[in-house]
Write the structure tokens for this entry.
Amino acid sequence: MTEAFRPYRKLLKRAREISLVSGTAGLLSWDHETYMPPKALAFRAGQLAHFSGQAHRLFTAKKVGDWISACEQHAFAAGSDEAANVREWRRLHDRATRVPARLVEKFLRVCTHSLAAWRAARERSEFNVFKPHLQKVLELNRQMADCWGYQESPYDALLEEYEPGIRAAQLRALFAELRPAIVAILGSAMERSAAVPEDLLNGNYSIAAQQAFNRQVAEAMGFDFEAGRIDTTTHPFCCTVGPGDCRLTTRYNEQNFTRSLYGIMHEAGHGLYEQGLPAEHYGTPLGMSASLGIHESQSRLWENHVGRSPAFWEHWHPVACGHFLELKKFSPAQITAAVNRVSPSFIRVEADQVTYDLHIILRFEIEVKLIEQQLAVADVPACWNEEFEKMLGLKVAKDADGCLQDIHWSKGMLGYFPTYTLGNLNASQLMRQAALDLPALEVELARGEYGALREWLREKIHRQGLRHPPAELMRRATGEPTRSVCHLDFLRKKFAAG
Amino acid sequence: MTEAFRPYRKLLKRAREISLVSGTAGLLSWDHETYMPPKALAFRAGQLAHFSGQAHRLFTAKKVGDWISACEQHAFAAGSDEAANVREWRRLHDRATRVPARLVEKFLRVCTHSLAAWRAARERSEFNVFKPHLQKVLELNRQMADCWGYQESPYDALLEEYEPGIRAAQLRALFAELRPAIVAILGSAMERSAAVPEDLLNGNYSIAAQQAFNRQVAEAMGFDFEAGRIDTTTHPFCCTVGPGDCRLTTRYNEQNFTRSLYGIMHEAGHGLYEQGLPAEHYGTPLGMSASLGIHESQSRLWENHVGRSPAFWEHWHPVACGHFLELKKFSPAQITAAVNRVSPSFIRVEADQVTYDLHIILRFEIEVKLIEQQLAVADVPACWNEEFEKMLGLKVAKDADGCLQDIHWSKGMLGYFPTYTLGNLNASQLMRQAALDLPALEVELARGEYGALREWLREKIHRQGLRHPPAELMRRATGEPTRSVCHLDFLRKKFAAG
């Protein structure tokens, strides 16, 4: 009935058209990172700029604003699908119209070249190769922040892109609370890990065997390979090209199978969210993820709460031995201890659960300084290395292990990192609630049965799309908005108890 | 100077915009055949329809016609870049404007589903799975032929898409000349091949070794892997996504490495043409290939005249032995004899050089009958099998080896097949001329040096783009338009002499 309201129908049609274009931009970008030959770069930058500009123009057209206004006048019933879509279209439209399409195009062109430069820079561990690109990316981010507008810090305007509603000041308070608590846990966690040799699991794990095992785990989680796939990239990611088309990537280390395993569990967590979004709402807010902080809760939940639990290795040890004979010499408990070994290390995506958020806090502080012009791009490596040593006690010997390790800045994504920590907090909060709601959960996890947990996440999170803002979504799922207490409890219990 | 003429500049700008869109459609289509997960099909069909419609609308806009008219009035100097572009834009624009964008979109949507159905049908060798799709594809081809218009046969209107200027009646005359001549050669060719066992080279060739050897050969031909790549598909093809981005595919048979080798030499022949087109004219007629008959001449030249020559195996035998130890037991001459064994067989792309064109004649006759409504889709397998046996003396036991073997119809391409035979004729004619122009050619080929031949093709064919219509291009390169005499001479000399 309500769909018969013409302006709403127009919006639905426009949303579908935009989704065709932005899904295609997704494929162009996936291909850029997986299979594109290097000499295609300049043309690809043109393509990405063209389609991003096109999607932007389609959404910011004056008549789209008129349709939204008409829908607001129409006053759809509170709690209806239409009301949620209109609320989010208004927010997204207001934000998008503040940025000219030409700036969006320029941003995409610059970022495509910047990504290629970062890859080369990371490979050679030469910050100078990346520096001029980071400079441009930063300037464009500042320009966009100015377009979007902000009250306290331009960083707020960037954050809004990834975590609607959150502000730098809130994060600063949250991190001020987290940091000392983590440091306190870290001491006893490291002590307990001292008995586990760092290279305990090191061996020779063929890539083919890793792929087979990872796939089996992802399938058990419920990732649908008829509607997705896994490829290899420099930096792992999850990307959706369209409904029924969600692509994960990872990288392999033949010495250590756990890197790609937890990489895939992480990305498949994202993938389950994407595959669980209601396909019938694809392209509209109801078919979109709520925020990156919610997205990262899904990845971190599967990676850490499921994948690094004793129950996981109880179940998967015999299967893993089928792929990797050398694992036979370990007990499930030994493997669990090894994958939970706590010790400061250089690479964020491979960091243990305790030190992980310290990596995020470091990036947050540097990003804010960059955006607020308190730090020059040329000084990033020095600043990074100094802060890293203060925070984690390690001397960074090469930038590939330091400020060049992550892809985000090269893709123009400043303001993204804090969502990982929000994801950790949300994951712990969700997992606590799931255990309350599903009395058999522990037994099921020990049997490698993930159906009930997945369906719980489907109902509470995935199928909600953007029906509620992220804080409200968390409140409805767990009884409270994102807080640090639950995650800290989890860390203490797991790493510092007894 | 001339570029300062405003309508011409407008056309250049529009052409660049269209190339961004159609290059993207190229990637969507490549991905469909290589990596796309099956459940993405419906959305992908929507994407392909959307972008093909968009490219069509951009090119058929009224103002594009006005710009072309203004350029015609302007009368650019004969032989100038501008004159050639304007001539072809006029031809292409007149043709395109006869087809409504909605029909283009529908065609792409239908073909995307049809391709997926064909893959399933071929795998299971069940024509019925493909039948309803072929019916739709055929009807849409007929509709488009009616839009385009024709004088004698609707098939003429389809041919024009692949080989501008040629007509079914001309092909019929050509094939009437070729068929008995080929049959005459076939007798003695088979007699000479009788001494070579069919399975002489059969062995166990790992896919990794095949890939390594194929890549080495393609590199020696001059295919630029910084601007291209090779993937695996059901049906081999070559596709250009943009300047600096030309992608080949092949399939592997672990019993017989020559299938993928000659598949790659064929596709790399196409790839060299694409990579040799003048990048500065990308998106305009001067940057486009002249016709499919010219395109196939490049693939068949490298596959057959270079790859199946004694000189080829003189040079590559030791290299091949490095990849495939079991080839050590053969002499180069034995391998040459094996890859030139003449004997009727089921699969066109693997047919010997003598029987190859009989496969094409069969398809041509069936296509004409389908388009002219003298044959029902349901009767295709029976008609195919009957004609195949008449022509090649073999009973088709399953449709996967018969009418389901080729991808073309599933992608909507009726009228394409004859260009393979035109390609064969053109290849022989070009090779004869190259030998006259390059006195050291034979010596170089025996050394595996392909630079001079490639540069000759670059100058005579690749860099010409669509500067001349295909017949004129052949006349300029070889002194005469496409004729059968040279190819028949070549076949007689190679397969029936002495």
About this structure: Chain A touches chain B through 35 residues (CB under 8 Å). The mean pLDDT of chain A is 96.
